[in-house]
Amino acid sequence: MTYETLTIDIDADGIALVTIDLPGQSMNVWNEGLMADYPKFVDELINNDDIKGAVIASGKKSGFLAGADLRMLGSSKAETMKEAFEQSWGLNRELRRMETGGHSAKELIKGSKSAKPVACALHGLALGGGLELALACHYRICSDNPKIQLGLPEVQVGLLPGGGGTQRLPRLSGLQAAGMMIMMGQPTNPQAALAQGFINEIVPHDEVIDKAKAWVKANPKASAPWDKKGYKFPGGAGSMDPRAVPLYMGSSAMALKQSKGNYEAVKAILSCLYEGSMLPIDTALRVESKYFTKLLAGPQSKNMIRTLFVNKQAAEKGAARPKAIEKTELKTVGVIGGGLMGSGITHVTAKGMMDVIVLDRTMEDAQKAVDYSQKIVDKKVSRGKMTKEKADAFMARIKPTDNYDDLKDVDLIIEAVFERPDVKADVIKKTEAVIRDDVVFASNTSTLPITGLAKHSKRPDQFIGMHFFSPVERMPLLEIIPGEKTGDKALAVAIDYNAKIRKTPIVVKDVRGFYTNRVFPPYANEAMLMVTEGVKMALIENAAISMGMPIGPLAVVDETTLKLGYDIMQSTKEEMGDAYVPSGSEGLSELMVKKIDRQGRRFGAGFYDYDDKGNKKGLWQGIGEYFPIAEEQPSVEEVKERLMYIQLIATAQCYHEEVVSDPQSADLGAIFGWGFAPWTGGPMSHIDTIGVDNFVRTADSLAQKYGERFKPPMSFREKADKGESFYKAA
Q1: What is the β-pairing status of strands 463-467 and 477-482?
Q2: pTM (predicted TM-score)
């Protein structure tokens, strides 16, 4: 046999060491090459008498196997559901052949036949289809590295484990432990896996393969536990087992709490667990493939895979980077401003292994950025997530200063001072007086147009905007904003910097508010309008959460502070003059900020009440004194529709105005910028799924009922008339 992705070495005892090592890739995945090689290996294992057993290992230092190549899953050429099922069933079939040695379950249970023993040597992470391959082996030995991750994360892209994970893991760990692991998609470590029963042994890293070979040699005949006479499902199973009934009820409730009923994969996983636990393993595996095929054929998984994997990965690898510009080696970055944003930017820059010189008006102000990072690393050290030595090395990369001359040797400047053009203009002038001529100047701003700020620069071609989100160390999105005169080098350097801090970047047009701050405010405003209409705040918050938003819009307004929203509103009024169009929530903002001092969480009170530590105590009950609660409340679905469509409309308007130039950026910016419901794949994906014609029709209906703000852009009407979508059909 010849292999592209495997090597097979047979030792004197007849034990085959099967090493998975995909050429040209840093991590093993189930791609077309491995999918073609694996059945050939199974044939050789079963039919070659020289092979007495096998140990499966990885040739990659990065880990064992990280699941399936999702691009491959999305490129199926199946024309019917039957063909699609056969494709999905392929891996399950081959894993089962390896597990049984090609024999039937009846033969194995009777003891008349046995399989050749196969052990798995796990040197590193095994996720998704990687863990499923391990579960199909008869014995699993794992390295003692506590950082190894073992898990089935498929639910995070709208799928379920399609290589036996929903059937083998419960048969090893029990329904409850396995069910939560699969439905949450969160990985675990070797010690927890050993305790749960799906890892058999943990040994020192250098002994993994030798121990696996020793087990194979000592067990010449093998079969899985469920292929042995008398096997019982751990913890009880089946609809007639009273121990399983509370588990299914509890699992359903917990799953609904987490998914809010939006994720088709969670429902399918529950069905796989329920049905599979009552069936023989071979039938159960086919049930799993049936549900996997259905999910893969549906729009939700396609949208999630496209946005959360394919497009996210492309953006992070620099898809928007000008190809002709050589990579800039960024060793030292100057951060101007030691406030909240500057401190966060300082932290992520140091985390990206770059030295940081953080400057502010006084050493005391600059020291705040140092203290910010010190607090974060101290917490990590106290929790055992970072050694004291690494923490000290981290902090040594940050140098505070109040002297602009200390910026003379930096490779990039990121300015994060007050959102006032005059303040930023002064900083630009003082900085450019000392930095090298080839250094790019990036301004962190959430609303101020970059072209206007660049007018204060002597080299506007090297001036660019970077919009970070707060808290910087946790928020995953970075908006990169070229001004009218920004050159390719500045864009390339911004993307090179992003590669080091590992955020998801999108490039957006230079307009006030850019992209995310053009879409989120209408969403927050819609919630505030409902408050003025007498809609219960609890209804608004719960409707948003039930449609997949991480927290309610009023809670987000409290987090970002009503004061900030009020200040932006006032500055927008001043700038636009008579052209300013009232949003309808000005009265509520004025009341909360100026009259009753409920300016947001940071100030101790907002739409929610807070304790002395800033923890939520509950929604403020006094709102009815100012905006009486309506006797007749809208339905949850009505509130959800308003909150969803106001975001879709605002996104559509940004796309229409080319604030974002492609649907990919719009979707990434929405999910990673303000937490738009991930199950949709993003607003543009969701519009495609709804159908552009249905989107336009519903938007028009909402506009008639609630106002012009719901009217869709003309380009979307034209698209609807032509029956087109924004993404090409798969």
Answers
A1: antiparallel
A2: 0.91
